[in-house]
Design goal:
This protein has about 90 residues and is mainly alpha-helical. It is about 35% helix and about 5% strand.
């Protein structure tokens, strides 16, 4: 009997449709990073935060790896995601 193949992509918050337009710390521009939501004033996709946290990185590590992103931005994005998911 064949077992189904596991999903190769990890499931994460970005797979859930969140209304990032309500979060003032992110922006989207069709000419910037293919229109992905990025941290305001940077080219760092919001997705990068969640992907790094999923793989075990800490917020401090993320901030060190992406120096254009501020801790206030990360806190705002995480708070927005938490609030949005609580409403689902």
């Amino acid at each position: 009997m064949r077992r189904p193949c596991p999903d190769p992509k990890p499931k994460h918050i970005m797979g859930t449709m969140l209304d990032w337009a309500e979060c003032g710390e992110v922006e989207r521009d069709k000419d910037k990073v293919s229109g992905a939501w990025v941290f305001r004033g940077t080219r760092v996709p919001v997705r990068a935060l969640f992907e790094n946290l999923e793989t075990g990185a800490t917020i401090d590590q993320f901030l060190a790896w992406f120096p254009g992103v501020t801790s206030n931005q990360v806190v705002a994005v995480l708070a927005h995601a938490e609030q949005s998911l609580a409403e689902v």
